[in-house]
UniProtKB/TrEMBL annotation:
Source organism per UniProt: Phalacrocorax carbo (Great cormorant)
Keyword Transmembrane helix: yes
Boundaries of every Sulfatase N-terminal domain copy: 1-220
Family: Belongs to the sulfatase family.
Keywords from the UniProt entry: Membrane, Transmembrane, Transmembrane helix
Keyword Thylakoid carried by entry: no
Organism superkingdom: Eukaryota
Stated name of the protein: Arylsulfatase D
Pfam families: Sulfatase (PF00884)
MF GO annotations: arylsulfatase activity
Amino acid sequence: GKWHMGVNCKSRCDHCHHPLNHGFDYFYGMPFTLLNECQGTDDPELAKSLQDTYWLYTQMIILAVLTLLIGKLTGLFSVKWKIIICLAICGLLYFIFWFSSYGFTKYWNCILMRNHDITEQPMNLEKTTSNMLREAISFIERNKHRPFLLFVSLLHVHTPLITTEKFQGRSRHGLYGDNVEEMDWMVGRLLDVIDKEGLKNTTFIYFASDHGGSLEAHRGNAQLGGWNGIYKG
């Protein structure tokens, strides 16, 4: 599932933060964290202010280039082609900076790995739920004849709320409720496998949350991050 600790320290392949360097014998999942960019939503999370700055400068330069170009071609004012070309190059550079911080985030961050190998880049969120479940079930079946520790860190009830079509609209609590229902179904599937393989009476199962709802997460007026009662987060 979601590791969220990263992979490397000083070089591209040192894997110092990888699960296999921290006591695990097998890993399948996301080495980083789930971002809105992974879903391609309109509200980016990573370096948002920087992206907004790059995009603003890009728009200003494009407007300046178009104004100078129209003025040059219509003879309204005299301007050297060199100035127009230089401004156009600056605009292109700012666009590249913006796209690098926004467009490539999905490819850099939203990946799935099996041990040290990347299996999906970017990952297909529509299939991630079934992929995670299949890997966990396979792990139980492979290790049922010996003691094992299976740690499943779900991507569910974490924004963006990736919910398969089968569970959308099921809950009266909106998309968050749908996501909780799908998570509940996934946990149920794992418990069924434990039971089916005859491990029910010899297995400790813990279910826990790492933190409260993210009250900062919104889409328009809709609050996406759950409910914490009187508590902040």
